[in-house]
Structure formats: structure tokens, C-alpha cells
Amino acid sequence: MSGKPRLTYLNGRGRMEPIRWLLAAAGVEFEEVFLQTKEQYDKLIKDGVLLFQQVPLVEIDGMKMVQTRAILSYIAGKYNLYGKDLKERALIDMYVEGISDLMQMILMFPFSPPDAKEKNLDSIKERATNRYFPVFEKVLKQHGQDFLVGNKFSWADVQLIEAILAVEEKIPAVLSGFPQLQAFKTKMSNMPTIKKFLQPGSPRKPPPDDHYVETVLKVFKR
């Protein structure tokens, strides 16, 4: 092996995208293996590679890691993106969990039946503007620093910029009432490692399309 982390998932965002974001933000190059058939997925299960018979799978430091949250916290700890003490880590965990709740809605959106898409989009907008983004607007304002926790770039900042951009793809004006988040987005997007990840040709995946949805349903069908 090259020593680079090796990521096994589909060729799309899904539950692997926050892992790609975090590795890229830490300046870590990685390799990817894309599942395209149910047979490939079943072989991983049969070979005992997937602890809970689920992907994402990340091979890093001699471990075969599954469970998105465990993978993310390991990467955050390894690359010093997890705060300086237990209190900072607790704040990062709280912010990450909140952002993950919003991202779960975005993750499931492409799988909505056509007649539910508009309603689900309204739900995302309502949750983003009334529940989640006001929290981070307030945190940034009260904290008075460039970053969410301490005055140091962390996993929470990476998750938030990913969420902001994902919501903006669906609701372009979503940040109109959030000046702190607008400034945060500009600042984060210009950080060298993130700027590189946002360029065409990077490992960042495009918004899910019909082909991605079909592949997901085909690979994971029971």
C-alpha cells in the first residue's frame, strides 16, 4: 500500500463526503475504490472486511475502519482538528452532531419520491434557517473569532462549510440573513486546503444525480 488512506464507497457524496472533506481540509491525499455492483459489496461482507456490513470503509494506519462518526473523530484527532482539551472536544462534538442532523436531510433528499421533493426542500430550508444556521450565526458572533471553537481550525468548521455549500446548492439565498456565516463561508473557502478541494478535478463529488441514486439502490439492495 502507498500509505495513503484508502476509501471504499460509491462514486458520489453520501456518507463518505464528510470524510473526504475532513481529509482534504487536513491536507491528506487519499485513494478511492468505487463500488459499482452488488457483487462487489457482497464480497466485502463475505470477506469479513465490513464490521457491521456497512460502508463507508476507510483503511488507515493499518485499520479497516467503518462507522462514519468513528472514522471522522479518528481523522480529526490524528490531524489535530479536535480541540485542545475535553471541553473544546465536547463543543466540537455538539456542533458536528447538529450539522449532521441537517446533513441527514440533504443526504436523503435525492431518494425522495417526486411528489415529496418540494415538501422536503421546504423542510430543509425551514430547518436550516430557523434551527441550525441561527445557532452558528450566534456562536460566531459571541465567540468573536474566525473559528467555531477556540481560535483554531477544527472538524466543526469543516462540517459547517460543507453543510453551508450543500444547502446553498438547493437554496441559493439561504445565507441572506446570516452575515457571520457569509463571512465564515468566504474565509473557509479561501483556506488553501479547502480552496484546493473546491477546484474542479478534486476528489469532491458533485451533487447526487439520477445515476447515483440508481447505483445506490442497485449496490445496496437486499
UniProtKB/TrEMBL annotation:
One annotated GO biological process: glutathione metabolic process
SUPFAM superfamilies: GST C-terminal domain-like, Thioredoxin-like
CDD domains (alphabetical): GST_C_Alpha (cd03208)
Database matches in Gene3D superfamilies: 1.20.1050.10, Glutaredoxin
Keywords per UniProt: Transferase
EC supergroup of this enzyme: transferase
GO MF annotation, one: glutathione transferase activity
The protein, known as: glutathione transferase
